């Protein structure tokens, strides 16, 4: 059993939810059998179990985007490569599937680039291609935005991870051995970036958005009950 977790906020319902997916496999975690999905809602401070989905989620870290929770997954148990993106809707609490574009190479990994769902694939010519879904939820909007000759960046496309766009339009990537690479898609040139003081090997790499909201300013679960109990006890003491 391999548990998968996800956490998200949806502005429509103004609430936070945690998703826990238990995956059951046969043998040495190879043959996917079924899954169980549990959802925790902060507003009600409660868990509930919903119907699972016939997908084997292939990564433990969800894709942060679009006020829903996404994972790269496999639907065909006999297929060794990724073939879909699974979406958990925080409002309806339903699981749906986003198909990858057709006629692409081997899917290496899924991610988010420029605010869009993205995939990295390897072609038969051993080049790396990056595709993005320009219109969220529309399978026909998959568009190839980057094509990279792997020899200009790394020795193995399978070790490449596309992180984000930089302010000058270059693409920030992580290659094998935790090297950060800045790739210029127009000049088709790359350079390795050095982080002073960083360890030689580090993993994983996380993209984050800064916030001016302090966690200490938020109401935590049970705070209202604790405040009521404190006031009630003081009245009894009087």
TrEMBL record:
Please state what the protein is called: F-box associated beta-propeller type 3 domain-containing protein
Which Pfam families does the entry link to? Answer: FBA_3
Q: Domain of life, per the record?
A: Eukaryota
Give the NCBIfam families listed for this entry. Answer: F_box_assoc_1
Report domain F-box associated beta-propeller type positions. Answer: 5-201
State the coiled-coil residue ranges.
Answer: none
């Amino acid at each position: 059993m391999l548990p998968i977790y996800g956490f998200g906020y949806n502005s429509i319902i103004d609430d936070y939810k945690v998703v826990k997916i238990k995956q059951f496999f046969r043998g040495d975690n190879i043959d996917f059998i079924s899954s169980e999905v549990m959802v925790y809602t902060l507003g009600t401070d409660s868990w509930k179990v919903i119907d699972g989905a016939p997908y084997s989620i292939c990564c433990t870290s969800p894709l942060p985007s679009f006020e829903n929770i996404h994972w790269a997954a496999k639907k065909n148990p006999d297929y060794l490569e990724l073939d879909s993106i699974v979406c958990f809707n925080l409002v309806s609490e339903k699981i749906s599937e986003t198909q990858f574009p057709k006629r692409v190479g081997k899917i290496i990994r899924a991610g988010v680039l420029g605010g869009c769902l993205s995939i990295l694939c390897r072609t038969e010519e051993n080049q790396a291609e990056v595709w993005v879904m320009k219109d969220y939820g529309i399978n026909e909007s998959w568009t190839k935005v980057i094509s990279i000759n792997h020899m200009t960046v790394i020795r193995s496309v399978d070790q490449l991870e596309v992180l984000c766009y930089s302010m000058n339009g270059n693409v920030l990537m992580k290659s094998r051995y935790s090297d950060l690479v800045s790739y210029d898609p127009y000049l088709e040139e790359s350079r390795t970036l050095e982080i002073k003081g960083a360890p030689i090997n580090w993993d994983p790499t996380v993209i984050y958005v800064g916030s001016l909201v302090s966690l200490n300013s938020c109401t935590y679960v049970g705070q209202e009950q604790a405040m009521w109990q404190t006031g009630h006890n003081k009245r009894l003491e009087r």
